[in-house]
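---------- Forwarded message ----------

FYI, see the S-adenosyl-L-methionine-dependent tRNA 4-demethylwyosine synthase TYW1 record below. Original note from H. follows.
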Amino acid sequence: LDVSMDMWSYFHTCLVSIWLHRFYIYSAVALGISLWIVIQFTTTRTKRKVTEPSPSSPEGTSDKLGNGCAPRQAQGIHVAGVKIFYGSQTGTAKRFAKSLAEAVFSLDLPVEIINMEDYDPEDGLVEETSSRNICVFLVATYTEGQPPESAVWFCKWLEEAANDFRVGKSFLQGLRYAVFGLGNSAYVDHYNTVGRKIDRWLWMLSASRIMARAEGDCNVAQSKHGSIEADFEAWKDKFLTRLQALCRGEKKPCRGKCKKGKCKSSGRQSKESSDREHGTSEQDNTEAEEFFETSSEEEAGGTDSVIDVEDLGNIMGRMKEAKVLLLERVWNVHSVNHSGYHLVYFVCQFLQAKLSCLMICALFSGYKLIGSHSGVKLCRWTKSMLRGRGGCYKHTFYGIESHRCMEATPSLACANKCVFCWRHHTNPVGTEWHWRMDQPEEILQEALEKHQNMIRQFKGVSGVKAARLEEALAVKHCALSLVGEPIMYPHINHLVRLLHQQGISTFLVTNAQFPEEIRRLEPVTQLYVSVDASTKESLKRIDRPLFKDFWQRFLDSLKALAEKQQRTVYRLTLVKAWNVDELKAYADLISLGKPDFIEVKGVTYCGESSASSLTMANVPWHGEVLSFVQELARLLPDYGIACEHEHSNCLLLAHSKFQVDGEWRTWIDYGRFQELVRERERSGGARTFTAAEYTARTPPWALFGAKERGFDPLDVRFQRKNKARDTSGC
């Protein structure tokens, strides 16, 4: 017992001592942990230095393969492989691609040779942003500076992506590439233009050059190495050296302007260094040029501009042409005796020339200008349906064939400057017609020709269905919603009649600022009014209208819509934190205009713009759009949720009169509509008809609640690995 008491006393004394000195113990433990962390960090860095050889270490060390690439089991994979793209007319680029592939294969790296004609850049290039591959582009310049036939589609897609402000400037960020152009300097004006353009377009989309662009010259008198083959061999040696360095995980030497091993600038890498202009300076400095990586994202330094220095010459040239055109049109004033007409004509010519300047400067990327004030553009959903990848929400809601739809406008001008405008306010604005007026026959003929020419360019493109390509040449629908305010065009009724005479259905969109024009409008297949807000304050903040009496015009436009007998639609664009909390006010506006349908769509973010403060935070998720629609439907007893198109983040509310015997009939019988229009024409307007006379049953897959979520099961849905890079169309 005494022994046990002594032990307990000793144990108690120890516990008391530990408690009294606990702060010293805590400090010792903390010191021990700190020392352990320092030792681990030092050991890791030492191992890394042993595993990853420095650039100055000899290539024969045991930690590397003989080809200069570090063994994959020893470190992470810095280069997964090389993909060699070629566009060739005579076979030279293809021959060079095979030669380069053999050299890369000798480095124990996977290599793939790809003919641009057989490659879909829209799908493939995005995947290369995370593949760790190096992409090499060997492309020739053909007649008049055009790409070879095999590279036409590749170049066209790349150009459109680079110049379309709806495509984020970081679209290809992560893709690493090198370009070798093939050309003949005897053709001074077009020497190696295709290689230069591909290099610039990739750079504009934030792809990273691993080395400066090189150019081979078929003109032996001017070729730096005596022939285009020798030019290629010299570049190939440099490329392989750079590839080996990348395999070892080496980073770019510096961010300055490097020549002959000396860094002349410690600042941001200049564009002139990264994309040296062709000519004497480039030819003279090729041998001494250091390798580096650069992309537009890095070089932009966080600014909104993505203008390449190499573009400045072209841009200035276009500006000079625009100024010449401006002066020619402004001063080309005809002698008129009527007092005051001289000044009016002067103003009209000035505004027209201003519009032409905008077009020349490529502000309307991808648009085809028609006459003086109209335009046409190929919708991305048209391209999608040509490939069997599904149609737009109008296909789901109303049964249009997206690949047979022409998106156009007879008026590029608009009376609003909406914050979510996907044109970034590059189109002119105005409250009345200022332009010299083109005739409707001319507009329609040229629109169809330009649309069909754009469709024909898809012939032979990978994935395009031949049957649908043939169908697409016969336009069946026209969406008068491309840009601007179509209803401003004074001859809009004549244009609509011409479209109907050719069996083309009409979907016309107005911004609810021209109530009298809405009343005078003859029947169209479906008339839309954009209802972007439900209160005067929020409409002013979102649409930024030019009219001082915009709210009264807005309400009058809705009243005018209620007078229409054909199909009418409210189009609501939800902008999170701007207009999603006004449900009761929206319900009041719906009772005013009594639309047949209500489309509710989440806003599409179209990139940064100095004209708008909109960000991705303002884009609602599809679940949020769905919740909004369900709450709105509870306030509208005469409406129900009929359809959904998840891919467009869009839902459709339809009036109960379109639910017959328990089945929704939101689709359109287009043949019946054309019959009704002809009957009206023959009666001189006495025969009227209503929306109920040309409805069609909505298929089960298009209905709200269907497992397809609005995607046509006849097509195959394509989803990118990185869905954040997706961009929306109309």
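H. also flagged this: The first strand starts at residue 81 and ends at 87.
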